[in-house]
Amino acid sequence: MLAIGATGSPREAVSPPRRPRHRAISFPLQAVMLLLTTTTFGAAASTWEVGPEDDWCGIIRALPAGGQVLLRPGDYSGPCTIRNGGTADAPIVLRAKDLRQLPRIIFQAETQNVFEVRADHVTIRGLQFGPTLPGVDAIRIYAVSGITIEDCYFSSLGGIAIVANHKHARNIAVRRNQIIGTKATGMYFGCHDGLHCALSDLLIEQNYINGVDSPKGSIGYGVQVKLNSTATIRDNVVVNTKGPGIMVYGARDLLQVSVVERNYIAASKDSAIVLGGGPAIVKNNIAVLSAEAGIALEDYGKRGLLRKIVLAHNTLYGNTTGGIVVPKQGLIDVRIVNNAAHALPGTPAFPIGQPGVMSVGNVDCRMRPCFQAPELGNYSPLSLGLAFFDAYPVMPTEDYFGQRRAMPPIPGAVEAPARAIPLGIKIVDP
Length: 430
Hints:
By secondary structure, this protein is mainly β. The chain folds into two domains: 7-243; 274-430, no CATH class. It contains two helices and 37 strands. The chain has helices spanning 29-38, 56-61; strands at residues 47-50, 68-71, 75-77, 80-82, 92-96, 104-106, 115-117, 122-125, 128-129, 139-141, 145-150, 153-155, 162-164, 169-175, 178-182, 187-189, 199-205, 208-212, 223-225, 231-234, 237-241, 246-248, 258-261, 264-266, 273-275, 280-283, 286-288, 293-297, 309-312, 315-319, 322-325, 334-337, 340-343, 357-360, 363-364, 371-373, 378-381. A 13-stranded parallel β-sheet has the order 1-2-5-8-11-14-17-20-23-26-29-32-34. The protein has a twelve-stranded parallel β-sheet with strand order 3-6-9-12-15-18-21-24-27-30-33-35, with no helix packed on it. A hairpin with a 4-residue loop joins strand 36 (371-373) and strand 37 (378-381). The longest helix has 10 residues, at 29-38. It is elongated, with a radius of gyration of 22 Å. The relative contact order is 0.09. The model is unreliable at 6-44 (pLDDT under 50).
């Protein structure tokens, strides 16, 4: 499988942040704590600026609700465990002073993870992690509410970049992070059995994942949301993963719906998107050049959870075993509407005539060219015709790029002529 980013393919649009060394003035922790507990600026709590030579982790642990620590550029010695948090209105914030020069947290031991977040209402913004040794995660979340991780850069990790699989938790947001060249799953949320922990109100958006490998016997997902955890996964770019780019396992509660929308997934050595169960809405995604299916439904563990699934307006191209693939047996309840799929010879574009599958308005692109320049990452519609008008409430009113859809709309993820898809953080137009 040719990796995305090779000659003739879309080029990576980002480069690793610079890591300059910066000498900072060091202060006694006692003085820092005194300042943090006595100094405010108007209605805001204290903000403290630190450098690599300061006791930066001790300062974080001394912050009051609403307090901030700004890290100057440089290399900081880890690990750090965050045990005090803020409130919903006043979280603790740990962030880079300058998002153009991300401070890097260095940790080359196996005793614990780089960051362990054991308090609620904590925001981590603009830090760099890696390399780490095998099995050492960058950020492991033990909290139950109000965690935000954004604008961070993870590279050469031996463990997971971001993981929360200890407690029932809600309101976790993971956005605009980059995970490059790691040896384990990029993001892992929830517990495998769906009993010991489940996450809700989980938001995963505008992240860029390129290059996930794993040791023999391990899968290596881009994003994995386990049984009974629910998420909105949108506007991410996920390429070159050993396992599925995105996998959602579903929920036993029919009111717990995951949404997978406007993602670009390419060159997975597995299927691009895998659903182990529903309820789920999968719309406006572009899934291409994967070693198995573009979108695969799998009755994981024979749980019988492949119900209340909608696959709408997805673009599928060049995936080795087919466009949308559904099990031949078992309980299935899936609505497949207005997708556009180019499947390789001898493989199905869509499931045909299967019980439990409602399929309408889809376009098999083997019959005619559907996309302007797919070899260059441009999936603008070409001679697709009009899609089936479906008043089903979850049908998208916009396309992958946020363009307003016509009525009736165009099949596939892209409604009108648009640019090729660059690799990197997806820019979402306001």
